[in-house]
Amino acid sequence: MQPNWIKQRAYLTPNRVAISFHDQQWTFNELYLQSVSLAYKLNTLHLTNGKRVAILAPSTPPLIELLYACMQAQCEMVLLNGRLAKQELAYQIADAEVDAILVADEELAKLPDDARIIPFSKLYRTTESEYDIAAQWDDDFALTIMYTSGTTGFPKGVCQTVVNHSSSAISSALNLGISEDDAWLCTVPIFHISGFSIVVRSLLYGMKIRLYEKFDAKKCSQEIINGTVTKMSVVAVILENLLSEMESIGQKAHPRFSTILAGGGPVPIDYLKRAAQLNLHVAQTYGMTETASQTATLANEDAFTHIGSAGKPLFFNEIKIAAKKDESIGEILIRGPHVTPRYIGQFKEKPTTIDGWLHTGDVGYLDEDGYLYVVDRRSDLIISGGENIYPAEIENVLLAHPKIKEAGVCGIAHDIWGQVPAAFIVVKESMTAQDVIEFCEQNLANYKVPKYVHFIASLPRSGSNKLLRRHLMKLLDE
Amino acid sequence: MQPNWIKQRAYLTPNRVAISFHDQQWTFNELYLQSVSLAYKLNTLHLTNGKRVAILAPSTPPLIELLYACMQAQCEMVLLNGRLAKQELAYQIADAEVDAILVADEELAKLPDDARIIPFSKLYRTTESEYDIAAQWDDDFALTIMYTSGTTGFPKGVCQTVVNHSSSAISSALNLGISEDDAWLCTVPIFHISGFSIVVRSLLYGMKIRLYEKFDAKKCSQEIINGTVTKMSVVAVILENLLSEMESIGQKAHPRFSTILAGGGPVPIDYLKRAAQLNLHVAQTYGMTETASQTATLANEDAFTHIGSAGKPLFFNEIKIAAKKDESIGEILIRGPHVTPRYIGQFKEKPTTIDGWLHTGDVGYLDEDGYLYVVDRRSDLIISGGENIYPAEIENVLLAHPKIKEAGVCGIAHDIWGQVPAAFIVVKESMTAQDVIEFCEQNLANYKVPKYVHFIASLPRSGSNKLLRRHLMKLLDE
């Protein structure tokens, strides 16, 4: 059991700033009081004590308030990604069997019709019914559920429990350090673990979040230059934007600014060199939805002596490589209190670990000093601007088109996004690349729509007829 | 389960300094290697995997090495206090039914004869037998056992488990902050929780310990003035010595020095004022052996707005007061992952908690903002003519007198009133009993004014320098 984080934080440091957004700010006590009021409204709607709610909203203070309220009400929150297509959202809502869908009014149009939808405006108008808010939380309670695709292409709902989140925040603190004056610049989406984990750190550390609905290179650079923030989470493409902006105005990071935490795939060495010129300390990290954020992080001091490494595990975490005899490269396995204990929905019977170890599907090795190098992401994972894209998911959509016989998808290098998806298609009847793209746009989040479409006579396959996605790239070269 | 802290720390930051002592230092990797060698020797002596060993040694690096080795070997360590009489040590050794007594050669004479004694010199000469050191530790494993007297007067062996210690270190970090450059000045005995908890923090944070066998006012002041350390644990009397030294040489604390953690009873307000003049940030804390160090800590920023308070609980801890109806003062109850799950020996059947709460026997209250005030340790309560008198309140007044260096108060039997307070005073400058009484009359209700005043050379104190009020009465008899 743990004390109710929101109540405890409001008790311990009521007057510290929890969130700052544009020129407004909210203390922990203010957010606590607002979340109690909202929790009483949720109670009127019978959404308390283990009920499951889906949430769709932009990364603004009303979302944070609602997250606080749902935690207080002990609802399991399915955090929906606003970039997904209607069909993708419908799948997650159905799979999670949610009791309600709480949605910011301005995002209503993104959802398919559903009787369970409760727009924020309706929630706000609901009367309050007072009840006893839990003083303690069960370690195993699933605070959040986030969908992530695996090799099958079917997104799995991953539970992240109270102890998953708290141990992630604790391990991060032991590694990066914490100070009363910390302020974390949050421009990553809250519906992703990269964003939600900042909310958790804020509660456990009593730390301010400087929140932006979307990344803004000019304003964010100024925060770093002025030292109004001390830490920030980024993916490589955002880091590049920041670097370009700071270089163009010829300003360096304020000494108070401590760390840029860079996740969602490798950071090009060139960026690291440019960051060093600007006094920006970049800590590269390896984490995923199943591990409630960071598993391993590379200290800034090691960035140039271990180029390309994702560092060593955080204190309570363990990493091992399942390599064949006499080989050092193999699948990356992870153990620790931050690893999800279960999936929900159609995958709920599938265990998340084997003998305590999460099998990531990612391939890597540990060097002689124990630094992790991620050689290849799981099963041809494409990482585009920090978003994970699973080829199988796009292939599943393509194969639903009546004119398409076979489809294969792989990632190709891209200057800005790191990678973008490319589709290889064997047709039944003739069609154009434009037909393919339009069909994908109707069924997939924008970032998943293939940027290149190639028609070929047959796909490269193994002896057992398995698609060889890595060979697709070679076709491209030819 | 948690990763073996010693192995994990040596893996993560092998080259960071773990201990510095006089002009020598040891990295985490050096201590790890030494502790593996010692663990192999313990294995030869069949002291591994749950065996119980008593340890008696001064606070020097060989003790730290041995603590590391016993943790690696998964021995339960009974930490003996070298200031105790032979008879008291014999009681603890018998009660704990230890398998061996590991003792620094220079402290052999303190122990009663016992066939189980193994002097360090003999341990060092033992051959090594290699075996598989545990990669993980069970949360519930009792790393340490410390004896503490309760209201009963019979010392109880308190188990402090892996999770007790880790959550204590984590909660402390969330409250005081941590930085890579931290160095904790340790002059408190390692056999007490105040000292051992510094060893735990060092392992979990990757933090340097600046170790002194004994407190040295001149040298310790210099460390604080030069900024070679950032944190320090003290009791009030040590704080006073530091303050006097720094005042006498007219030097202030270095800006890098962050916090003095003051435990083992209340800190007189006068000391806090003097500390503020020297830029010393004092965080007053309330903790005990049963809670593996701090339960509540007062932030420096609140020191003068909540004078006399021990602060608020640390993040994962809870405090409540068992007060009678319509009263706010009552017994202090504590809940959290840091609370001991069990005693050993003759008290092993006695539960440590009731409905999850540790009943401390201490008396206090929470003010309207939730700050804890420890009114007194219950066993020292003086009841005079039906009025409750708390010795600490009288001592605080006495210590504000410019001619008084140290003061202790206890109750003595009285024909009419049941008990009356008596004061024991160590002076800076000569003064009369009449001076003392007049000063008290100006500052205290009449019934609280000491009826007897005794001038003595030094106050009776425990191994951790805590005032032993019960021994004051014995002085009177002599």
* Largest interface in this structure: A-B, 23 and 23 residues
Alpha-carbon Rg of chain A, integer: 22 Å
Strands side by side in the biggest sheet of chain A: 3-2-12-11-13-14-15-16-17
Total domain units of chain A: 3
Mean pLDDT of chain A: 92
Task: Give me the oligomer status.
Answer: homodimer
The CATH topology of the largest domain in chain A is Rossmann fold
User: Can you name the CATH architecture of the largest domain in chain A?
Assistant: 3-Layer(aba) Sandwich
Strand content of chain A: 25-35%
Helix tally of chain A equals 13
Structural class of chain A: alpha/beta
Query: In angstroms, what separates the terminal alpha carbons of chain A?
Result: 59 Å
C-alpha geometry of chain A: globular
Approximate helicity band of chain A? 25-40%
Low-confidence stretches of chain A: none
CATH homologous superfamily assignment of the largest domain in chain A: ANL, N-terminal domain
| Count of extended strands of chain A | 27
| CATH classification class of the largest domain in chain A | Alpha Beta
Largest sheet of chain A: 9 strands, mixed
